[in-house]
Structure formats: C-alpha cells, structure tokens
Structure prediction request, 516 residues.
Amino acid sequence: MRSLIVSLFLLAAFNLCSAQTAEERIKELGIKLFTPAKPIANYVKAVRTGNLVFTAGHGPGRADGTNIKGRLGDDLNVEEGYEAARVSCISLLSSLKAEIGDLNKVKRIVKVTGMVNSTADFYDQPKVINGCSDLLVDIFGDKGKHARAAVGMISLPSNIAVEIEMIVEIEE
Amino acid sequence: MRSLIVSLFLLAAFNLCSAQTAEERIKELGIKLFTPAKPIANYVKAVRTGNLVFTAGHGPGRADGTNIKGRLGDDLNVEEGYEAARVSCISLLSSLKAEIGDLNKVKRIVKVTGMVNSTADFYDQPKVINGCSDLLVDIFGDKGKHARAAVGMISLPSNIAVEIEMIVEIEE
Amino acid sequence: MRSLIVSLFLLAAFNLCSAQTAEERIKELGIKLFTPAKPIANYVKAVRTGNLVFTAGHGPGRADGTNIKGRLGDDLNVEEGYEAARVSCISLLSSLKAEIGDLNKVKRIVKVTGMVNSTADFYDQPKVINGCSDLLVDIFGDKGKHARAAVGMISLPSNIAVEIEMIVEIEE
Prediction:
C-alpha cells in the first residue's frame, strides 16, 4: 500500500514536471524578458492576424540597450554567433509576450528565419541560429519545433550579428 | 449657441479628416497606382489565401517600366534608397489593388520585408526601408503599422536598389 | 452521329488530360520524391498551421544525400543554378508530402522565397529560381502559380547553391 502511494506521488511529480509551462521554464532558466524598446520608425515589433503573430526582425539587443555586433567568419566565431541568436530569441519572446500577454498561449512556433551577418566563406549559419532554435525547444518543447531558414547576409542594420524573425501560432 | 455650432462643425471636420480612406489619401498625395506588368516567369504578383494576401518581392519599378538601380553604400545614398523604397511601395500597392480591387479593404499591413542591395559596410537598411513604411502609415494610419525586417543583400535581380514584399490582412 | 461520338470521346479525353492530378504528373515526369533526412538541429522541415504549411528553407539536396554547391556568378552558371532550384523544389515537395500525405491536397502554392548564393555582380536570380517555379506550375497548373521573391545571398549553409522556402495552402 505504501509503495502504491509512493508510486502515485512520483507519477504526479513527473506529470507536474513534464507539464511545466513555458513561463515556468523561462523563470527556471533565469531568463528576464523585458519591455521592448519602441521602434524608432513607422513599424511595430509584432502584429497578430487571426491566430498567427508575425514578428519584426529582431537583433541581439539586450534589456540594457547594448547589442552584439560584428560579422561571422571575421569578427565573431560560431560560439559568439550562437550567443547572439540566443539573445535575439529572448528579445523576440519579449516582444511576443508584450503582444499576447502570456507565453503559455503559444500553440506552436511555426517558422523562424535566421539572417546571419556573414563573410562570403562563412557556411555555418545553421550552427549560429541553433542559439535561437535550442532555446525555443527548451522553453516550449514540441510546440517549439519550427520550420527554419538560416542564411548569410552581406550586412545588417547597425552591423548587428544576426537578425531573426518568427511566425507563431497562438491558442484562440 | 454659435459656439456650439462652431464646435459641431469642427468636430465634423475632424471626423471627416480622421475618417479619410486609404484610396482618398492616395489620391490626395497625387500617387498614381498602375496596372502591374505581367511577370515574365511562372509566378504572380500577389496571392490571396483566406484573408491574407502574400505579395511577390517588388522592386522600385515605375509605371513607365524604368527602375531605380544600384547598390546602397556605393552607387546610391540613403535619400536615394528611401525614394527607391517609396517607389517599391507604390508598385506593391498597385499589385495589391489589382488583387483585391479596393485598398479600403485593407484591415492591416501585417509584415514588410525590405531587402536592400548593400555593400558590406552599409548599415542603414532601416533608414532606406522607411521610404516604404512611412508611406504605408501615411496612407493607412494605424492599420499601416507593420512588423518589419530590413536587411542587406549582396545582389538583387537586374541590380535593383531594393526588393520589398508584404503580407496584408484584408476585410472579409 | 459518329462525329458526335468522336467529339464526345475527344472532349472526355481532354477533360481527363486537364484533370491530371499533381501526383500523376509527378509520376509522369519520372520524379522520385524521397523521405526527407531528419534535420540535425532543433527544427523540422514543415509546420502546418490551419490550412497553411510553412516549409523550412530547402537546399538542392538529392535523395542520395549529395548537394549542389557553389556560388552563382562564379562557380555555377544560370543553367546549373536552374537545375539546383529544380532539385530544391523536389526536396520541398518531398517534405510537403511527408507533412500532408498527398500532394493532391495542395490548393495553392502561395509564396516561394528563392535565396541564391551570389557574387555581388550576379543579377539573374529570377532565371535561377525559375527552376523551382517552372516545376511547380508544371505539376500543379494554375494552383502552382505563386507570389515569389528571388534574391542574392552572400553565403548559404555548406555553400549550397540555393535555399528555397514555400508557403502552401492545403484543402481543408
């Protein structure tokens, strides 16, 4: 009888664990979402249409306003690019949360387009954009598995290292 | 009594002003939309699916068939790039009107992707693509405020200065 | 009377011909779709949301795992680029079929974005991406006519020649 109770307890604990929400996981990872800076031009950070949200392209801007700048294959190595993609992802999720209020409403990360500031002979854009993809799957699990493009750009605004945009499906 | 009449008049004038339609504003700006040239390949200028319209990438082609060509950071300066983005926007709106019949049906400009023909050290893509964004907000007001990406391309078809595409939500 | 029968027969034959399905046309063209390789990162080849499928960016990877690599304007000419776009299209259709089960469910190819590994003075991205567009229209007829962007990239993953992504509307 006691072992049954223990088993049920463990099962409940496991379910609780596997049912961890996106918001809980973000907190557990120690990630601080922030209020997105107001765009300095006639555009916005995210637009919802029906149950899809289309985000603007987001660079690796941190809450304090600093950015990760430089070109992959020259100024930055893959690890630094990976970190830039991770920071861009946090910025994207900050804008998404500002738009929908609660990241637990995310039904699916549909598409990620990762544009990497690259030299002509830098071919590891996928390893860079993994910094965004890995975080999305860590936070959202299977709902975070997205279609993706990762490509090289000759230049990006203010020489930022990456610019990433997303399409996200939201619970109705 | 007279001040009441004046107030009502001003209120009516204000409402009239704020209620100006997209088609009226286009006319007021002296912008001439045109019949889009037929694509010379197996694609079309715009496709509607549900209440979204996805446009093709549009360059700065004018009604007379001329184009604005050249690379930002080399052949063209920011002001010339801004003008190219504005011309591309007029071309996009021409194709959109051909698809949906009436631009007053636009519910929201959802997304703009602005691809700028750039040198490796040109970092002002946002200032260039403002030429499109500013016109959209001028014409559509808050409905024109879109999510946006602005990035640098090593080359564009026929060496055009910019190529811009849009996703637009239409009234059902 | 005999001429009426002949006419009816020809009419029926014509209808049959024009009613050829996408799956039949793929078979007739001798195109072998294949099981897409599992992505080596935290992303997937296609995501369906509502009646839209967004694909990942696909390169010119063949069923045997080989790829068409090189830069247009340098390593590859337009004909080789066209072939690379055609091979990418077959890869895209393979992933699409894996996602939706039957390509006859395609209601419309909505959007194609063709990213071409290019030198700074290569301007024929449209002629390259025609390798994908032509095949889509050959297979799907009017349903295959899509909005399209064709642009030049400074570099692509593993130095592949093109990377193409699609948005596809599916019968509900």
About this structure: The domain at 21-170 of chain B is CATH 3.30.1330.40 (60s Ribosomal Protein L30; Chain: A;). The CA atoms of residues 26 and 139 of chain B lie 6 Å apart.
